[in-house]
Design goal:
The chain is built from 7 helices and 14 strands. With about 300 residues, the chain is of the alpha+beta class. It starts with 6 loop residues before the first helix and ends with a strand.
């Protein structure tokens, strides 16, 4: 199958290959992954098993043991390394569609196939995004000094609101508590509900330049904005530093079982059943802290 870079191109590839299960699987998997915006936060990890059981070492140099400089003819005390469990199990998504006998008789099997595949792709992408955002939400620390709480009457949709100041405060918390590099800090993503998105798109005078707050934040802080309609984000936003140090979105891509099954449904037509195993996981801060300092919650964003 030739390389593809857009959903429309992928859908075109299904018009005459409805009977080829493996290519249909490739189209649906690749296209749904293209539509999932949450993987900008948690990158995809392709797996050949549905169980992930790993351990990673805690960071060096955060304790009181001095590694540098070390006196001549001396060795620093031994620093034991704690291993943090990183485990999760992929969960199954299932969808199906039919190419009806009537569509075949009318010569419309190809167009019905494209429409059905599009809906499967959209459904898978929507559910993957929701699962990623749920994990991001639960992966943020909730301590009073580990989040930003906006005072009443200063919500972003009100005149006294100051989204820029709140975002800078959140980035400062991430910078203080985590080990992010300057480059990583300049790649942050704001996940916010669409009910405050207009506040970032209004033209205003900033530093004597007519621009939107979204443009200014991108230019000055490297910040991208990701809108969501998830009800859990109506009054809460999150700043996330993307990448594998924050977490990952695991997807089963092995060949132990068929991921697309095809069969004849008597009296109806050709049935296709699509399975996809996926799960997201935040990398815990330590063996005693399950959340990540690379995510910062901003509370009370909307009045």
């Amino acid at each position: 199958m030739t390389p593809v870079h857009s959903l429309e191109q992928l859908l075109q590839d299904t018009s005459d290959i409805a009977y080829r299960k493996e290519i249909l699987k490739e189209v649906i998997y690749k296209a749904s992954n293209l539509k999932v915006v949450g993987t900008k936060i948690l990158p995809i990890r392709n797996l050949t098993n549905i169980d992930v059981k790993l351990q990673f070492p805690t960071e060096r140099g955060k304790g009181a043991i001095k590694k540098y400089p070390v006196a001549e003819n001396a060795l620093p005390p031994f620093e034991s390394i704690k291993w943090v469990p990183f485990q999760y199990t992929l969960e199954k998504f299932v969808d199906q569609f039919f190419i009806t006998d009537e569509a075949v008789i009318r010569g419309q099997a190809a167009i019905q196939n494209q429409m059905e595949v599009r809906r499967v792709i959209e459904n898978a992408a929507k559910l993957q995004d929701a699962e990623i955002l749920d994990v991001v939400q639960s992966g943020a620390s909730d301590g009073a000094t580990e989040k930003v709480t906006i005072a009443g009457a200063a919500e972003w949709d009100l005149a006294a609101g100051d989204p820029e100041a709140d975002i800078v405060n959140a980035l400062t918390i991430i910078d203080t508590l985590s080990n992010v590099s300057d480059a990583e800090l300049m790649s942050g993503i704001l996940v916010a509900h669409v009910n405050v998105r207009s506040e970032f798109r209004k033209l205003q005078l900033i530093n004597n330049v007519q621009q939107t707050l979204q443009q200014y934040l991108k230019a000055s802080l490297g910040l991208s904005i990701m809108g969501t309609r998830d009800a859990d984000f109506v009054d809460t936003a999150f700043i996330v530093i993307p990448g594998r140090e924050t977490g990952e979105h695991g997807i089963y891509n092995g060949n132990a079982v068929p991921l697309v099954e095809q069969g004849r449904k008597r009296g109806v037509g050709q049935e296709y059943l699509i399975k996809k195993w996926f799960k997201s996981k935040i990398k815990p801060e330590s063996d005693t802290k399950a959340t990540s300092y690379r995510i910062c919650k901003i509370e009370n964003t909307h009045s």
